[in-house]
Structures are given as C-alpha cells and as structure tokens.
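Our preliminary data section would be incomplete without showing what the modeling component actually yields. Below, a chain of 218 amino acids is followed by its predicted structure, encoded as tokens that our downstream tools consume directly.
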Amino acid sequence: MNATLYGQLQRSAEKHYASRIIAAHVIVIKRTKSEYAQQAVKYKLFFMLGKLVIKAINNFNYLTRTVPKHKLLHSSEDIAIECYLTFDTCLKNIDISKVNKFYFFLNTALNRAIYRLYEKQYIRYFNVVDNTEENMHLLLNAGYHQHFDFSEVDLIGLSDLELDILRFKVEGGKINIFLKDHDIAGKVFYETIEKLKVKLAAIYKEEVFFIDLEPVTV
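Predicted structure:
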C-alpha cells in the first residue's frame, strides 16, 4: 500500500501548507520552461495538497457506500489518479493572477469531478442514496463536507490569513495548532473571522452560507 499513489497521499495528508507556499509552487509550474522541472514541482505540489485529495477519495467512498463491493468499478488508487488528472487540468486553466486561490479552485474541481464520476458510472445503474440536502445529516456525521463549493465565491479580496482561516474552517482541525503555525493570538484569529464573514456576506448577502464560520473553542 505504501508504494501506491494513494498510500503516499495518506502519508502527506496530515501536513499543512500556507496558501502562499502553494501559490509559489503554482507560479513555478506556470512559468518554468523545463518540462522535467515542471513535472517535478507538479508532483511535489500534488502531495502538498494531499489532504484535499484524500477528502475527495473519502467523498467517493461515501457516495458509493451502498454499491456492492464486487460491482465497484474504481479503487481508491483509481480515484487518486482521477484526482491527479483534475489537478493537472486546474493547473493548465488557472490564471497566473489568481494562483493564490488555487487551493479553493482545486477543492471545487475535485468535488465536481468526483460527483460527475459517481453520477455517470454509478447513480444511473445502482440503487444508491441520492446526494441531496435531505441527506446532509449523513454527510455531517461522516466527518467531512461532501460539497463545499467555492466556485461562486470571489476570493480576490481576501488576505492570505483570511484564506488560510477559510481553509482551516473547511478542513477542520485544532485551533491551537493553527495559531502556533501562523504565530498569531486567538484575538487576531476571531477578529479575522468576523472580517471574513463580512466580506463573504457582501458577496452572497445571505447568512445561511456562513453558519460553518462561527467561532470555535480551544
């Protein structure tokens, strides 16, 4: 297992990288003229984003939970490869001026790719539970959000810290570790959340989108 792409992603999924580090790697990939160097940085970035990929694989496993095992067409390794293809497409399509939003663009792209695969290969042929709002309680109990889509959110006006906090709220985690990694006080964290909620509310003008951004406790 450890030699597989999926196994490597599992090992890298516990690591955290700031948005600016991810953006720097995207810039190198977009600007380098050496195909060999570009590919090397691309692989490195893919594993840096391992947490997103593992979440997508878990998403797929949850969607297909009612499909008999002998009828499953894709293993976790297969889905990891599908995620890499989506990742590669995102790199090709991302505008150089928006590289600091790559993490969120990829998150949206993976959500869509996984659901399209499930819809095309499984939902039409098997008796499975629909991925609907009525089943949201099942998704919440699964420990991850199946559809957290940033495709309609204009993230241009967000600072690096705001982006990292938004990412932290999506992924979940321990706030004390986040504060230590970013060398900020809890007061700064909560003040930034409030500013972030105002900015997002200005886009959607509906509070229902921001329930998940309520302050967390240490």
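The chain has two domains: 1-151, 153-218. Residues 123 and 173 are 32 Å apart (CA to CA). Preliminary results of this kind motivate Aim 1 of the renewal.
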